[in-house]
Amino acid sequence: MRLASLRSKIFLLVGLTLLMVAVAVLLVTQRNVTRTVVASEEQAVRNVLNLLVRDSEARWGALLNDKIITVRNGRSHLVQLGTTVRSVLDMFAEQVERRQITTTEAEDLAKQWINGLALDKDRYAFIFNHDLITIASGKRELLGMNLSALKDFKGHDLAASAYQEARTTGQSFAIYRWPSSANDGKGELRYAYFSYFEPWDWIFAITDNAREVSEQFDLRRAEMENAVSEALETLRLADSGFAFIVQDNGELVSPLPAEHAGLLDEREPESGSTLRDMLLKVPASGDIATFTFDSPSEKGDWEVSAARFKPLGWTIVAAVPTDDLTRPATVLRFRLGTIFLGVLAISLLVAWAMSARITRPLQQLSDFARKLPEQDLSAAADIPDHIAQLPRRQPDEVGRLASTFIFMDEQLREKIASLVQETSSRERLQSELSIAHDIQMGLLPVPLDRAILDKVDLYATMLPAKEVGGDLYDYFLLNNGKLCLVIGDVSDKGVPAALFMAVTRTLVRACAEDETDPAQLMERVNNRLSENNPNLMFVTLILAVIDLESGELAWANAGHPPLCVLQGNGELRMLEGRSGPACGVQDGLPYRRFTAVLEPGETVVGYTDGVTEALNPAGELYGEHRLFEFLAHRAPANAQATTDALIRHVREFAHDTDQSDDITVIAAKRALS
User: Fold this and answer.
1) pLDDT tens digits, residue range 281-293?
2) Has this prediction a pTM greater than 0.90?
3) DSSP state of 381
């Protein structure tokens, strides 16, 4: 390649320009890209930590609520027993008022009744007077005991507080710990209901053991800690980061991964502090604290974010290696460099080809002119592409000269070429329609794996009215493991409808790569179809997503006939609801999401209007009423049997009448187990 040639100059100019632009862009964007990516990764870690804190708050609230409900239930039962005791005391007091017995006799009878009152092993009644001395008790060792030293759960004097509150309000409720014989400071946790009996200035109480409440609370807390621990064991942040929970006493609720088990007790070379020491300094306000920990054994820094959850005494920690935060930025920079090198290589190849194009048109035109007299003018024109494109590519003398030669050749062959073109066009059109039919049938989805078909029986069929049609159906698994069903009907027929159908199916599959919500998926498909739709074609569409485990069915309906559900008892229900208009008319439209549950053994059926608009020889429509009546009286069957039976029923109704529209039916039956 000589530098003096036009080709070499173009090649060198393009190469240097692209190289300078690539270097400038990499230098300018490197710092900003690194900052942006690192900030994004850090925010993702903080979001995960916030979610863990919120989850802990919700679990703690549920735990407290369960405890409150249990205590309230026990308290209600004690109140009922207290009402019974009061009625007996009132009876003795009434006998005194009627002068049947003396006050002393009545009090003695009441004490004897309380002493002999047997409730159960842990529950008993007792009475004490204004001197806080027990004068009657279903538990013998309480008789004559001075209760003034007994404290409630909040540290208040139990008997004195109960006496004052019961005299004021009529009743009191307290939780206290009955001292044990070993004087170990633990004792038996109990709760009691106190009520004031005014005629004799007595306080009578019903007490019960609170061990069940305490044990249930401890059990629920242990279950909560196990659930949180199991969830955190599978959680990974960035590439190798993780989350764990440490209690105030140093014990771990959720352990660290085995490969990082010693990280908590490692010491930083500079500060000499362990990670455990740093976590103790996290403020108790619940705000997220972020700091860097230099691990000597891990040979790198860790970005640590921690938040304290005071009610449980937890410190929730997220630890991510600093290299994990910067690795996406490094990968992105490498990728950008690779892209720039690829663009540079491609551009140089294009520059080389363009320089050849500029310097060789005259030679090509000369070769064409020499071969023109030797051609058979009765045959089709054999103009090379590079000559035919010269008038457009070269708007100068060379282009005009090429136009002259091409015009002369066209005039000589016009009549013969016109006749040959008309005949060949008809044959080609018929062949293309046949090929298009084969291609369209080839676009239909292949059967799913046997593991999926064991959970859902799936079958679909499409009968185009012409060689190609505008109906479509599809089914495939989403990234989250759920099954997506698609059925639609394009507004036109023939080749345009088939092309629009192929585009719609491709868009649905492409958008479903990163979207699983049917309403959001419908919005994206509608926006893409509406971007460039000069003929204002549209497609009615249903996107349904089935959870193969729970049977939850979520769908969005864009102007399509509603789905039918064949229930196990033979009844038929419709999945009504219009999410929005047909796709392709206008972009930016929201679509509504609907949900239902597909029970085991139920079959969901989708169809196009080719079914309901099928005509018989008398010009009558098959109609929705015949469709619903047929489906409602169907005995339980698999998806293929249901679909084939419906198609046969429509054809029997049409009685060999030409099919006026495409017919498509899809059925999915959830397995019984």
Assistant:
1) 788 777 777 777 7
2) no
3) P
